[in-house]
Amino acid sequence: MNITARSIAGVGMTSQRTRDRMVDRLRDRGIMDESVIETMAQVPRHLFVDEAMATRAYEDASLPIGEGQTISQPYAVARMTELLLADGPRRRVLEVGTGSGYQAAVLSRLVDGVFTVERIKNLLDKARNRFKALEYRNIHTRYSDGSWGWASNGPYDGIIVTAAPRNVPDALYEQLAIGGRMVVPVGGKFETQSLLLITREEDGFHESRLADVKFVPFLSGKS
Ligand code: SAH
Fold this sequence. Notes:
Elements: H1 3-9, H2 16-28, H3 34-42, E1 63-66, E2 69-71, H4 74-85, E3 92-96, H5 102-108, E4 113-118, H6 121-133, E5 139-143, E6 156-161, H7 170-174, E7 176-186, E8 193-201, E9 204-213
Parallel strand pairs: 3-4, 3-6, 4-5, 6-7
Antiparallel strand pairs: 1-2, 7-8, 8-9
Helix pairs in contact: 2-3
Bound molecules: S-adenosyl-L-homocysteine.
The site of S-adenosyl-L-homocysteine has 24 residues, from β2, α5 and β4.
């Protein structure tokens, strides 16, 4: 079945009712931003995983998407989106690590434009096809190592990183607008990673450590 037929099918484990149960669990876990909840109740997560995984798409788990990568768990997507949007609307958001495209899809319903960068061509091509089929036209994609950000469209009033670097790349600091917010997991593959919220004010950057998290590693170069 192609992506359109699958979205129309929308039955059983991929139905609206399953999606509603997923967002109920997000509320139970403390997600409070209703615009995030409503968006996640609408975006068809099962279309962002391979067909064989579709029935598991609404579990609160990360799932393999090929190339050793994973689609982030719904709770992580909800929490990071909520953190990014807290404190007022974000017009332009940079995402590093497109992966399946699900996080970008959720964000695209909540901000003016999403600029998303991925270093694995095969994953990016699949994500692009999904955006096209779903007619998410305000998502702009780029095949690149996200260590460099995407300077030509910056500065961004939101930056979200969905793989964990050891240290936040300088380019991402530089491309964050004053008044902007960045949500990024940091830490090595075998260390405990921390989710950081970095804000940029007139007087410089402010950083807070929010939670222990587990993300795939941030890698350099293209593949
Ligand atoms: N946001 C994705 C999560 C995918 S996992 C989703 O919703 O599905 C993280 C992704 O980050 C992987 O696809 C990985 O290839 C990508 N990644 C890791 N290091 C990167 C880098 N330096 N530049 C761009 N993408 C990177």
